[in-house]
Amino acid sequence: MAHDGEALTGIGVLAGEAERYGHNLPLIDGNKSYHQVTEEVFAPTERHPPLRWWLALAVTLSMLGLGVWAATQTLTRGIGTWGLNRTVGWAFDITNFVFWVGIGHAGTLISAILFLFRQRWRTSINRAAEAMTLFAVMCAGTFPIIHMGRPWLAFWATPYPNSRGSLWVNFKSPLLWDVVAISTYFIISLTFWYIGLLPDLATQRDRAKTKLKRTILSIFSLGWNGSNRTWSRYETVYMLLAGLSTPLVVSVHTIVSMDFATSVIPGWHATIFPPYFVVGAVFSGFAMVLTLMIIARAVMGLKEYITTRHLEAMTKVVLATGMIVGMAYATEFFTAWYSGNPYERYVFLNRALGPYQWAYWTMVGCNVLSPQFFWFRKVRTTPWMIFILTIFVNIGMWFERFVIIVTSLHRDYLPSSWAMYRPTFIEVAILIGSFGLFFTLFLVFTRVLPMIAASEVKGVLKNVEH
Amino acid sequence: MSSTEPPHRSRFRASFADPEQLLGAVKHLRAAGHRVLDTYTPFPVHGMDEAMGLRPSRLPRACLAFAALGLAIAGGFQIWSSAIDYPLRTGGKPLLAIPAFIPVAFELTVLLAGLGVVASFFVAARMRPRLRVPDLHPGANDDQFILAAELGADIQFPAVARELMGLGATESSLLLDDRFQRGDSFWDRPAGIGALLLACLPAFLLLVSVPFLNRDFQKRNLAWDGGMGAPLSAQAYDASGVLPGGQVLQSPPPGTLSRRSEAPLAFAPGKAEAERAGRELQNPHQPTQARFNRGKLVYERVCATCHGREGDNNGSLIVARGAFAPTVLVSPVVRDMPDGRLFHIATFGGPTKMKGYGDLLSREDRWQVVLYIRELQKAAAKPAAVPAPAPATPTGAQP
Q: Which of A149, A161, A178, A248 is buried most deeply by CB count within 10 Å?
């Protein structure tokens, strides 16, 4: 509302101010027309996928198949197929669960928090990032369900009227908070994503060539016709959902961290956990968005939509959150020393110097050191370098959860209970399967729905601050 | 135009290639006395709400109402289920642990606010799956910026069309059909929002009132199905119309022995009964090495914590912690008690602090403990020819 288009282009003072804040840089390259945006964004959904797409799908489906086989083994033969023991009763599955939930957080952050902060560059990436959120939460949800051993009884985690006398779930348990938080997060993210899709579904409906496609899209686009009366309400709803999602996303990883922090295990029982986990989630999520976007923009010819300026903005988020994560690692050590608690001190010494030190130093190297390269502008604007570094960040963030979980558990108070944990092939296969699920869904998404929010991109084509 | 007035004023549309031109045209048409019905654009054109004179949406109020509903449901249900209906204490937390209820209450607040406001949006904007989209203008979802308006009084369309071309319109035409909605939809007006909330009210009241309903805690919860989940079971002391004696619980048949095969003791608790047991009961066991070992084991596990390993009151719990002193077993008072009386005390407890061990130790073990106490007394009496001095035990106090 500060100034309208004429003012920006016409008046020197305002134009100078705009330049200072980078407002005169176009967010989308190629000086496109509105129609060109429509054509280019919807093109992948309207042509037959190329051979390399089918090859990629074959790979991801194979990974998914391996995971389904491993999950079937787990469910038919029992949790004994995993490498858990009496001391480490919780390891690979919860690591993967926290990893995937964290990945999801970047999508909500981009779609909700950057929207509230009016970061208009988000328009090119929010659709794909939100889809990534949904797929990541689906992957995350499979792990606790498989871990139940009897997933057909998963509904026991919900408070439903039952015939067992007075019997309700324990609302004081963080594990139940987790069930509620993850379910809410999935439903609200799905809703937010769908609302954001509505205008594009209508465009897709108008362009549909076959009757079947047109019918399906008519059902899901809910009679959208671009009416300003609808747009007006739509924008209100979108902002409300963004406002609701912002505290929601913070609450979700806070609650995930409480699964650990409310216990009395040294290494888990720490008040720093909620902010530490939330920042770690944003860190890993942005890294994953970058990994995916760098592939997608190259493969699908979207370089003019997802420009190096977008990549650079995201790498700055990765750098900032990476340093906060590093700070959290240091704070944990300080707290352990300052607590004077010998068990607490031992856990952290053991983390850095014990039998799992390789995992700890992998984590520190990937999460604290590798983002430091983003101080260099050259690195921030070179996609292949970003790609390599973000892969490292993803590896590091997976190890962070592994380190927190396994090193805190494997040396119990009683030395007679000390044990080592190593995953079995079945557990690794389930992890591979979850990657297969994630990438399969993402590949299908890029061919079925517009990967870029065309209606939002059109709104920022001229990049004028209204 | 014929001389008769048409039922509605004529309507027309115009297309623009640029959102700023559309905005200018809308402002111009309204100033010229036309009624702009709506605009159709591929993205929201900022400033159009003001240009069209639309009021801000009331959807935030619906959102707030749904958020309050979510909070009330989550808060009420957690309090009722955790503190009233199923008061199970866990983790040393109070039953009404409000801080522990915050996460779920927050999540449900967000969930209902989000789903509620989206549902309200669909109702207000009349959005539903439609195979035929009303007022769909070609290009409106692509790159055209279109307005639909109603001619002002005494203005002819050709003049307006020329003006619109001057404002940058690429195309304009009269609309022959009468499909355009007028004004806000019902659901966007206060009455509509009120109706929506009113519709939610019964569910809201029902859920909020659940914790306060007067429940019969003898009954089962609401269940989805009866069948095997809720059999016709009877409590042991319920009356029965079919069973002998008119009661559910039946006596065992005559001659039944308990699984321990111990005939019931013909004694009751109390000092008089203890004295009678002293007169009437004999220790059925002779002191052998095996019985001595067993008695020692039982004594040291069970009795010694209070009475002391030597029976001298030097137990690890009571005296050492400054509490009351139990009876000294090696004192003359106890030495003079008959076996039957000690057995009675071991079974039913003493008259002061000691509890009975009849249901924890077998009868044989209790007799063996008595044998072992006798051995302790002999050992205590041996070194000194005189009886050991009894520390501050009130005279006549029973163990």
A: A248
Amino acid, single-letter form, for residue A191: T
Residue A364 backbone zone (phi > 0: left; psi -120 to 50: alpha; other: beta): alpha
Question: Around A110, how many Cα atoms within 13 Å sit in the side-chain half-sphere?
Answer: 35
Provide the chain B residues 307-366 that lie in CB contact (below 8 A) with chain A.
none
Domains by residue range for chain A, with CATH: 32-159+168-460 (1.20.1630.10)
Q: Exposed, middle or buried by CB within 10 Å (0-12, 13-18, 19+), for B60?
A: middle
Q: Is A459 an interface residue toward B (CB < 8 Å)?
A: yes
- Contact assignment for A170 to B122 by CB distance below 8 Å: no
State the pLDDT at residue A244: 93
Cβ within 8 Å of residue A260, ≥6 positions away: A268, A269, A273, A404, A405, A408
B239: DSSP letter: B
Residue of A nearest to B36 (CA): A228
Which of A196, A229, A453, A222 lies closest to B59, judged by CA?
A: A229
Amino acid B105 reads: A
> Angle at which helices A174-207 and A228-261 pack, to 10 degrees?
150
- Please report residues of B whose CB lies closer than 8 A to that of A237: 59, 117-118, 121
**Chain-chain contact of A231 with B131 (C-beta, under 8 angstroms):** no
Is B271-381 CATH 1.10.760.10?
A: yes
Residue whose structure tokens are 């992957």: A139
pLDDT digit string, tens, across residues A9-53: 333 334 444 444 455 556 777 677 888 888 888 888 888 888 989
Q: What are the pLDDT digits (tens) for B59-94? A: 999 999 999 999 999 999 999 998 888 888 887 778
ipTM of this model? 0.89
Nearest to A166 among B20, B85, B97 (CB): B85
Q: How far is CA A445 from CA A44, A318, A391, B237, in A?
A: 10, 25, 22, 65
Q: Which of A191, A230, A458 shows the shortest C-beta gap to B43?
A: A458
What is the topology classification, in CATH, of domain B11-42+139-175?
Alpha-Beta Plaits (3.30.70)
Name the DSSP class of B176. Answer: -
Cβ pair B129:A240 closer than 8 A: no
What distance separates the 2 farthest-apart alpha carbons in chain A?
A: 78
Q: Give the per-residue pLDDT at A57.
A: 94
